[in-house]
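Q: What structure does this chain adopt?
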Amino acid sequence: MFTCFVLFISFYNAGLSDQMLKDTFRNSPEKRWIYFADTVMGGQSEGAVAFKKGSQGQYARLTGNVTTKNNGGFIQIRKRISGVDKDIAGIKLTAKGNNQIYHIFIRTSGTVLPWQYYKAEFSARNSWKKIKIPIDDFQRSSSFLSRKIRPETIKSIGLVAFGRDFSADLYISEVSFY
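A:
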């Protein structure tokens, strides 16, 4: 009986791990993705996330106005994750937008302070596009962080409109590792 229980838990956890590593914004994404802006630190950016269905399937749409006033400059949605395989090569996503540059922020067990992260940018054109970003392309936000990300330490991924004054309109239909 104990052996059956251990096998059940092993398969159950393996299934959960797979679900955490790929998100197509189905089945209550608002429970997995949280929106927040620089207002948590006094900034003045405003925005929102909406989870919708369209010709591409389910997607998240991040919209708003990013402003660097009062030391601000971001809006984002973030998902907590765990159980990342140490051998992943990078992050892939399917996105479209308003021909602006957006960012992916990765936080790890080593990014202790709120302003610490690893980031990579991507361009969101006005039609759906698959984008792959190698894990080695992510840049650390501080010299206090390790130069390279150890994938098994990743604890969250953020999709971010960041760093300058602009109107954000980002659609994401899939985020996963490769």
